[in-house]
Amino acid sequence: MNVKVIDTIYKECSKSNKKFYSSMITNWLLFDESVARKAFYTWNLKRVQIAIDGTEQVYNKTKKYIYYIGNPYYTVLDNIKLLIDQGIHVLVSLWVNELSGESLMELVDVLTDRFGKSERFSVMCAAIHEKNAGKEFR
Fold first, then answer.
1. Over 70: is that where the pLDDT of 134 sits?
2. Rounded to whole angstroms, how far apart are CA atoms 88 and 24?
3. To which H or E segment does residue 60 belong?
4. Residue 135: what pLDDT?
5. Which residues pair with 121 in a beta bridge?
6. Nearest to 41 by CA among 24, 61, 21
7. CA distance 44 to 63
8. Which of 18, 49, 73, 91 lies in disulfide reach of 59, CB 3.0 to 4.6 Å?
9. Cα separation of 37 and 108, whole Å?
């Protein structure tokens, strides 16, 4: 996430005096409330797609963030709420493979409990194939 580059793109788009909006695909881990506000009000961000690989244990193990302090899974969930509260639609992508199915079913319950009543929240599932999938999540 490079805020300076996105600011530059926004400034160039603004020079055209045409209305525009933006969308983004991200893990949304590095965002905070000020960036969420900027994304909505300055960048005209309307929609964000975020991939979540499973529940806390699966997500954190899959992502393996080595320089992040805290719990990335809960940070992403909290940041989804920040986005929704700013008026940005969030689409969560659940990538289904032979190892993630059960975890994703649990995740759907978590997401439904936290965001299911919001009109700015949706979930998409898609099957993916991992040729060399390990057995570490079984």
1. no
2. 11
3. helix 56-63
4. 39
5. 90
6. 21
7. 29
8. 73
9. 27
